[in-house]
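User: I've been trying to design a sequence by hand for this structure and keep getting stuck. Would you show me what you'd pick, starting by listing the structure so we're on the same page?

Assistant: Good idea, let's start from the same input. This is the structure you sent:
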């Protein structure tokens, strides 16, 4: 007797569909990550007294920057400053800074 439903599949078609679905589910899915062309975006904010991120709680600058996506884990940074009118940069930190 013929099945009247147009959606009915034969046994071999059901098995083939199940295998195809299983193979498609097991394939790795890799989406291309969209990245904007950003730079470091360095920001320095002067802090005077009050609540501070420094251990001394005094005045100073809070410096923040963007970690770039292509940088490997464990990257360290040095912070330099150039005083107004000076030609040379001065290293501010004694040991390299890390994100951890």
């Amino acid at each position: 007797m013929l099945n009247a439903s147009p959606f009915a599949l034969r046994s071999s078609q059901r098995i083939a569909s199940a295998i195809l679905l299983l193979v498609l589910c097991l394939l790795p899915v890799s989406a291309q990550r969209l990245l904007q062309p950003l730079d470091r975006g360095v920001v320095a904010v002067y802090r005077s007294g009050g609540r501070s991120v420094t251990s001394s709680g005094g005045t100073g600058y809070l410096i923040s920057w963007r970690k770039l996506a292509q940088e490997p884990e464990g990257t360290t940074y040095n912070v330099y400053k150039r005083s107004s009118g000076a030609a040379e940069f001065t290293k501010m930190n004694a040991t390299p800074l890390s994100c951890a």
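That's my pick for every position. To get oriented when you compare it with your attempt: The CA atoms of residues 14 and 20 lie 10 Å apart. The radius of gyration is 30 Å.
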